[in-house]
Design a protein that fits this description.
The protein has ten helices and eleven strands. The chain is of the alpha/beta class and 338 residues long. The protein folds into two domains: 101 residues, no CATH class; 188 residues, von Willebrand factor, type A domain (Rossmann fold, 3-Layer(aba) Sandwich), CATH 3.40.50. The strands form three sheets. The protein has a six-stranded mixed beta sheet with strand order 5-4-3-6-7-10, with helices on both faces. Helix 7 runs parallel beside helix 8. It starts with a strand and ends with a helix.
Length: 338
């Protein structure tokens, strides 16, 4: 919670002053010195002691004072509101190095699990697309709002071959411009765009790319940084994730069919440059837990806007109700208004 006029909170000093005044008044309550010798007459003249009830109206009054003074500072709450539209393209490395087990059970399995979480986190109206890259590139799913289609496509990813990161980015840019498909793979009807409040034509929904890679670019026709320049021109921020550790090892098959153990560290420097060029953000994921946290953060960052709502009316309303309750109880119990 924040406050539009935080200096008004200084007025809360009145609350302890009011408490002290009440305690002082209670300590000076007159004590009856008279002695009634006729106990029957005493029972008829004096009602039972109000006990703890006499403090309730005062407590309610103090709560009312506190709430009204907080209302003066205009309290505000920040909360998340789902965005209405966007296209999110997951560009995922499926090269042979994704079989490395420095992230359990494998890098590929950890990437799939985290991607499923992201899919379920993003608002339902978002279009999602999946592009895979290794020695070649492929648009596995054109933009769709069908989460089942997207999840099935993620499960189908299989690691093999080298790493054509630059080509993967170019394919992701192209995929973002494809028509939306439905669960049957057919073009889906797009909603008719409406003009903005000032009568201007609506802007196209934003496109965000999430690039996950666990190694250096080794193949392809496009250098990753050149591809990043193209994404920057198209206004597509790329959030990059370096998956794995510098000590990661994968078993790969060479051109002669022999299996070899190869060190496969992620290329953090290139991925960081890609995010810097496009206005995205770089993340390092040396563990499955880190990757899960990254996708959670991305889902919150990409899918939701933070908005501020003023809560002044709520605090003022509570203060008014507390005053009414204090007065009602005082009249009911003591036949007087405090």
């Amino acid at each position: 919670m924040s406050f539009a006029w935080p200096l008004a909170l200084l007025s809360l000093v009145l609350v302890p002053v009011a408490v002290a005044a009440y305690l002082w008044a209670q300590s000076r309550r007159p004590k009856y010195a008279a002695r009634f010798t006729n106990l029957d007459l005493l029972a008829n003249v004096v009602d039972g002691s109000p006990g703890w009830r006499r403090h309730i109206p005062a407590v309610l009054g103090l709560l009312a004072l506190t709430s009204l003074l907080v209302a003066l500072a205009r309290p505000e709450f920040v909360h998340k509101v789902p965005k209405q539209e966007a296209t999110v393209v997951l560009v995922t490395d499926v090269s042979g190095s994704m079989t490395a087990t420095d992230i359990q059970p494998t890098r590929m399995d950890a990437a799939k699990t985290a991607a499923h979480t992201l899919v379920e986190t993003l608002p339902k109206g978002f279009r999602l697309s999946l592009v895979s890259f290794s020695a070649g590139v492929r648009t596995v799913v054109a933009p769709t709002t069908d989460r089942d289609v997207m999840n099935a496509a993620i499960d189908s990813l299989t690691p093999t071959g080298g790493t054509a990161m630059g080509d993967g980015i170019v394919e992701g840019i192209a995929a973002s411009k494809l028509s939306t498909i439905d669960a049957k793979g057919q073009p889906a009807a797009s909603p008719t765009p409406t003009a903005t409040a000032n009568g201007q034509p609506p802007k196209d929904p934003p496109v965000i790319m999430i690039l996950l890679s666990d190694g250096a670019n080794t193949l392809g026709q496009t250098d990753p940084l050149d591809a990043a320049d193209q994404a920057q021109v198209d206004g597509i921020p790329i959030f990059t994730i370096a998956l794995g550790t510098q000590q990661g090892v994968a078993i790969v098959t060479d051109s002669q069919g022999r299996q070899r153990r190869v060190n496969v560290p992620p290329d953090e420097e290139t991925l960081r440059e890609i995010s810097d060029i496009t206005g995205g953000k770089f993340f390092s994921a040396p563990s499955a837990k880190d990757l899960q946290s990254i996708y959670d953060e991305l889902g919150s960052k990409i899918g939701y806007d933070k908005t501020t709502s003023e809560a002044t009316v709520g605090f003022a309303g509570f203060g008014a109700l507390a005053i009414l309750a204090a007065g009602a109880l005082s009249l009911l119990w003591f036949n007087r208004f405090p």
